[in-house]
Amino acid sequence: MDMQSSFLDRLFDSGLLIDTGVDGLYGRSGQFEDVISAFERLIDKFGGADGAEAIRFPPGMNRAFFETSGYMKSFPQLAGTVHSFCGNELDHMSLLKCMEVGDDWTKDQQATDIVLTPAACYPLYPTVAKRGAIPENGALYDLQSYCFRHEPSKDPARQQLFRMREYVCMGSEKHVTDFRQSWMDRGVEMMKAVGLDVTIDVANDPFFGRAGKMLANNQRDQNLKFELLIPITSVAKPTACMSFNYHQDAFGTKWGLNFADGSVVHTACVGFGLERIALALFHTHGLDVKEWPESVRKTLWG
């Protein structure tokens, strides 16, 4: 049995995660949720004084916004859409007959106006763009959302539905890159406080296809994305638990995010994979939080 399956089985046996029969889709126990809540309070301690505007979007977003984002050009393999029955009574009878005999009852489902949110920040950009010009001293937002990515796996740290906490900064190039660097420093400090060994390395997103390889190489060459890595199911291939991304003016141009003088805004974000951080804590300190080091418990629960 590999380390991923072994750790997943231990999480199931302990009741921390609940098997739903679908890889990457799990229930969570109260104890698991308590660890996430405690870590979110730690995030607030580090970032709360920055004055970010808190916004909480649902796990689904406007399909038109999703299409404008260009996500399907880069990550079609990860996207999830919401479909629904839109037929008449005859169509309903046909659907029930398909289910009864084991045929595919989903073939006549139609796409709705909702797409599953791929990253917590995606609904933010069109929302802010509608407000008008960005202040000269920039803007900062605090987000948290369930996100979906279609990549079923036995690795408990690679879930299909998971929560992402983000801070998104909009402003000048220097403003947002300084923001990113400050959170890279904070991220290391935070993980040290909860007893986790980390490394930070340059990274790239999983762009699709041959053209995607060029995009990935450009992203790495320009140091646009860094990840904070923690061993969870592999020491050789540690898991990205935080990401630090500089988008340049890509989102500003796409969504019309401008300063009052018309110049395009740059953006950057820091993302916390909340389930992954909780799993890193359980993997490192054990499945019983009462047995965790006192210093870690004090940091999380006071």
UniProtKB/TrEMBL annotation:
Name used for this protein in its record: Archaeal seryl-tRNA synthetase-related sequence
Gene3D superfamilies in the record: Bira Bifunctional Protein, Domain 2
Keyword set includes Hydrolase: no
Keywords recorded for this protein, A-Z: Aminoacyl-tRNA synthetase, Ligase
GO molecular function: aminoacyl-tRNA ligase activity
Keyword Secreted applies: no
Database matches in SUPFAM superfamilies: Class II aaRS and biotin synthetases (SSF55681)
Domain of life the protein comes from: Bacteria
InterPro entries (alphabetical): aa-tRNA-synth_II/BPL/LPL (IPR045864)
